[in-house]
Structure formats: C-alpha cells, structure tokens
Write the structure tokens for this entry.
Amino acid sequence: MNLKLELLEPTMSKPSSPIITVQQHILQDQKRFPGSSGEFSWLLSGITMATKLIQAKVRRAGLTDILGEQGDINVQGEVQQKLDVFSNDALIHCLSARESIGVLASEEDEKPLLVHKGSENAHYAVVFDPLDGSSNIDVNVSVGTTFSILRRPEGIGLDEPEKWVLQPGAKQIAAGYVVYGSSTILVYSVGNGVHGFTLDPAVGAYILSHPNMKMPEQGKYYSVNEAYRDTFPVRYREYIRRLREGTLGHKYASRYIGSMVADFHRTLLKGGVFLYPPTESNPEGKLRLLYEANPVAFLAEQAGGTAIDGTRRVLDIQPKSIHQRTPLVVGSRVELADFERFVVQADSRQPA
Ligand code: AHG
Ligand code: MN
Ligand code: MN
C-alpha cells in the first residue's frame, strides 16, 4: 500500500515517485492506441465525477434527508432507496454530457436510455448499477457503484439501443467499480491489468494507490449468504462443506457484507471465493449479468482470478435481456479450480 497521498502535505519534501491521478493514468494508457483522441478519458471522467457526487452524499447521509425509501418500485420489483435514485441521476447527468456515449443502461431503469440521438460520434454504451448494496445504506456499511463500457456493435444503429448492450462480457472494453467504504476507492481495467485509485477527499482527486492489482492464488474466506444454504443446489452445499472442513489445506472462515461490490473488493485483495448461487426464491441467482457479474468477472480475470456462473465462464454468456440474472462464483484460482473439479465436473457426470 503506498502512501503517496501524504506527499501532498506541504511539509513533505520532493515525492519519490510521481502522484498519478486516474485521469493521467487513462491518458497514459490511451497512448497504447495510435490515433486515440482522448475521448475515452473524457468518458471516464463522467464516471469519476458522478461517483464523487455520490460519495459526497454517502459521507453526509446521516445529516441530510437522503436515507430511507424513495417510495417507488424499480424494474426489479425492489423498493428504491433515495440514494439509489440520487446515484442514478448523478450518473445519467454526468454521462449525458459525453458526446461519445450513445446509450446508458441502469439497474434502476427498465429500458436503455438513448443519448445524443443522431450523433456520429456516439459509439459507446455504459451499463451501470448506480448504488450496489442498498440494504446497507441506512446502517453505515459499505456500498458501491459498478460500471461496464461496451462499444456499439458494427451495423447497429441508434434505433436499437438494446443491441448496444446485449453483448457478452468478453466484449467489455472497460469495467470497474467504486466502493464507498472506510475510504472511497475506484478500481478499473481497460483490459491492461487492474488498477485502484483512492479518493483524496482533501483535493477531490482519485490517486493511484493500488497499481496492477493481482488476486492472491488462494485466500482464507468464502463469502455467501449462508441463510439460504438449505436451498442451494446440493453440490454448492457440498462445496461449502469442503471449504469449512479444510479440504483445500485450511479451514475457511466466512465474510459476508451483503454489498457485492464490497464483498468482491475484499476477494480481489485477499483472495478466496464469493458466491451467489441459485436459491429457491431466485433460481437464476440474484445478481444481474450486465452490470454486476460482468464487471467483476472482467476485473477478476484481469487480476488472475476466475468467474463462472456455476458452469460457464461468465464473460462468455450471451445476454438475452438487460436485467437478466445469473448465479455467480468468483474468486481465486485455487478455490475456483476446486469448484470446477468437484461441482462442475460432478454435475456433468450426474446431473442434480
Ligand atoms: P442492489 O442493492 O444493487 O439491488 O444489489 C444488492 C445485491 C448485492 O449487492 C448483494 O450481493 C446482494 O444483493 C445481497 O443479497 P442478499 O441479501 O440476498 O444476500
Ligand atoms: Mn447491485
Ligand atoms: Mn443497485
């Protein structure tokens, strides 16, 4: 963990390594692509701006009238919290100002939103979960934002916004998330490794704090909502038993926050496995493929981990609808190899 932020203190002498903001990092990354116009960094700045607005609201949540329910039901049939609505508005407001974006799709909106209708320059779609972990908002526990960026497919026009976003996760050109936790951290990848930037609240900038993140080969924790264990398919239950009993070399402990983005962030840093299996009430799992599973699967793979839906690589799934759900098993190489050996292969020999 580097302490570059301290270098901003006026009493410190010359920095030993340069302070790199997320904007500088993106611009440097873009130099890899000849002819790049800087539009991608302008697009990303819409996300960084919106997430700064969201984190400012989250930080002052107990002092302002932003806690609690909005009163509406979203397309998922879930009660919208005020912070869900604020976060959605912030992202739409900031991203609508970017001419390179043609389509925005959000967890909170039934249909994708067409922006800059008719602009020749609009060739990106951004899909997002504006506020992940809604049940944790009112109790001061980490929440987050996830996003996925796709390029407009060849030959698809502005009259077919759904087709812009119904692409397998392997087609993402960038993905990431922000965790509003004990600090605010942005983690993203453009397919060139995973990099983390901590928001320095004093200067309002995301500063590179976690360059080239790698998920440990194996971890100590599994992360799942154990309350539903009796309704998981039998081999998921067996897998969790293996972890608890020490079949992989040590007995696992569990951690479960209930905000996917925070549970995944811990898994990225510490290793282990996060699961949201099929359950009785959610036979397809609960998490949404396009804006929850795909971004974390992209980051997991970029960091040396694995993400499957219980059988297939998440990034290979061809989505059929925007709010489609998927089971998710994501984590370190060792835990996922064991899952594939004892759950996926066993399933293929003898279907449950
Ligand atoms: P959201 O707040 O965007 O609707 O997402 C909540 C999700 C996810 O963050 C978390 O992993 C999961 O819901 C927790 O669900 P359970 O309460 O069923 O464990
Ligand atoms: Mn969510
Ligand atoms: Mn959400």
